[in-house]
Amino acid sequence: METFVQILVSGLTLGAMYAASTIGLSLVWGAMGVLNMAHGALLTIGGYASYSAVIHLGLPWYLGLPAAIIVSFIVGLLIYHIIFRFMYRHPAFETNVIIATVGLAIFLEQVTLLIYGAYPFLQPFSIEEGFFVSGVFIRFQNVVILVLAVVTMLLVAALLSRTRMGRAIRATALNREAAQLMGVNVGRVFAQVMGIAGVVAAISGVMLSSITTLAPTMGYDPMLKAFIICVIAGLGNVPGALIAAFVLGLFESVVQFAVGVRFGFPALLLLVIIALIWRPYGVFGRRQVRRV
Amino acid sequence: MSEPLLEVDSLDAGYHGQRVLRDISFGVPDGGLITIIGPNGHGKTTLLRAVSGLIHPMAGEIRFDGKALGRARVDQIVARGIVHIPQGDMIFSEMTVRDNLLMGAYLPVPFRQADANLKEVYALLPRLEERESQVASTLSGGERRMLAIGRGMMTGGRILLIDEPSLGLAPIAIDTIYGLIQKLKEAGRTILLVEENASRVADLADRIYLLDHGEFVWQGTASELDLHEEIVETYLGA
């Protein structure tokens, strides 16, 4: 029972963080049909922005997360205005964006390194208290992460399904030309999507760095996991991605406990290979693969 | 006759530097129904795409309500009241019927009137109200076409450009769709209709243009068309 609770808690926490890292990536793919390789950089920037807001600007600790959200939101919009805006009408948009955002990610990583150095800073907030469930100590930190991730997902889901802006994002994803014919300014939708991706990435960056440490490269690992989750769920499928995130988080925890911590990631990759052999367009993917 | 609502003047248009349309001129009067017929692949859809701004003219001008469209973006042209109901529907297949219709009312002005417009569409197309919360991909071909036209009506635009509404439908569904177009015409809507075959549209149209190899080769009314058997035989195979 104790081990079960322990695995469950660590699996759900992992899953929550994976899910939060995946939403932005999946949303950008769904709406624009491109991979944003600078997604990890948005996470990193969010993490450092929260740290700087508290340590350097002297804001109270609870303003760390809002500060991170604002900074990553602005960076997300800038990525649209500096890169995507000039590319999305071009037939080679998909390839160009991958190359441009890889370059941007490296640039942002080096800028972070230049400003902060490689020292593994800790977020200036951490909740050490906790409670016991069947003899297992559970930190409030994990509970807060789980709740925050679930609330974020619900908010994004509500935004997509109930608002005028969300409808336009979904419509653009389904048929860009038809959305234009309804009066949707596709450029503006893409900017909104990048803004939302920035906000969610900031939340996930702060959560991640609150249980590990800050590092200029901290965004890569969650981005890689986010890719895996997107591929398993079927790219662009946000609800599928959330289910996949929790399943994979739990799976990784089980493997880490049963076989060993270092086998967690290889086991994930093995699962992806099996999933793709079984269903090449993703476990929840409904549409056919768009391009080869 | 007063100035037409939509006026196309010596238009050349095409793709990637290739001209598909040459020297196209015509007008659609307010409240009128103008039809363009002709074989497939001769520029009918290209013409509608040029009017709705999906492609920009290579030469000539398109004026709406007296003002040139120039190189306006598609969404700006929609905001001015030109509604393009594209070929093959292009409905948002994974959204509900209601969400599809609400997408038609995306722009701020129609969005404020969305409830009233929705009532109007449902009154005209009760089938859509029955299937309101169904995902659009589960609709039949005829229902999808109804949804595409209903979605276009939701924009509250001043002219509807309808591209081949009978394409791929069973005869009975075509009857329904043309019944709907007839009602729209009677309600005073301005319509520019494109069809491959004249037989369905002839009685509705105020004026018919025949488009062949990117040029108008004939124009007139339905009764004049009857006098030209050679046109009917050559182009329309009826």
Unreliable residue runs of chain B = none
| CATH-defined architecture of the largest domain in chain B | 3-Layer(aba) Sandwich
What portion of residues of chain B is helical? 25-40%
Strand and helix order of chain B: EEEHEEHEHHHHHEHEEEHH
- Helix segment tally of chain B: 10
| Main sheet characteristics of chain B | 6 strands, mixed
* Oligomer type: heterodimer
Strand composition percent of chain A: under 5%
The biggest sheet of chain A, with number of strands, parallel, antiparallel or mixed sense and barrel status, is:
2 strands, antiparallel
Q: Averaging pLDDT over every residue of chain B, what do you get?
A: 91
Question: Span between N and C termini of chain A?
Answer: 47 Å
N-to-C SSE string of chain A, H for helix and E for strand:
HHHHEEHHHHHHH
Distance between the termini of chain B: 33 Å
Strand order of the largest sheet of chain A: 1-2
Shape of chain B: globular
CATH topology of the largest domain in chain B: Rossmann fold
Primary descriptors:
heterodimer, A: 292 residues, two-stranded antiparallel ribbon, 2 strands, 71% helix, B: Rossmann fold, 2 domains, six-stranded mixed beta sheet, four-stranded antiparallel beta sheet, 10 helices, globular
Please characterize this protein's 3D structure.
The complex is a heterodimer of chains A (292) and B (238). Chain A is mostly helical. Chain A has a domain at 21-218. Chain A has eleven helices and two strands; from the N terminus they run H-H-H-H-E-E-H-H-H-H-H-H-H. Chain A has helices at 2-32, 39-55, 64-82, 93-116, 140-162, 164-174, 176-181, 186-211, 220-233, 238-258, 264-278; strands at 130-133, 136-139. Chain A has a two-stranded antiparallel sheet. In chain A, strand 1 and strand 2 (136-139) form a beta hairpin. The longest helix of chain A has 31 residues, at 2-32. Residues 288-292 of chain A have low confidence and may be disordered. Chain B has 238 residues and is α/β, with parallel strands linked by helices. Chain B folds into two domains: 1-81 and 158-168 and 179-238, Rossmann fold (3-Layer(aba) Sandwich); 85-156, no CATH class. Helices cover 37% and strands 26% of the residues of chain B. Chain B is built from ten helices and ten strands. In chain B, the strands form two sheets. Chain B has a six-stranded mixed sheet with strand order 6-7-8-3-9-10, sandwiched between helices. Chain B has a four-stranded antiparallel sheet with strand order 2-1-4-5, covered by helices on one side. In chain B, a hairpin with a 2-residue loop joins strand 1 and strand 2 (18-28). In chain B, helix 7 runs parallel beside helix 8 (171-186). Chain B is globular. Chains A and B meet through helix 6 and helix 7 of A and helix 2 and helix 3 of B.
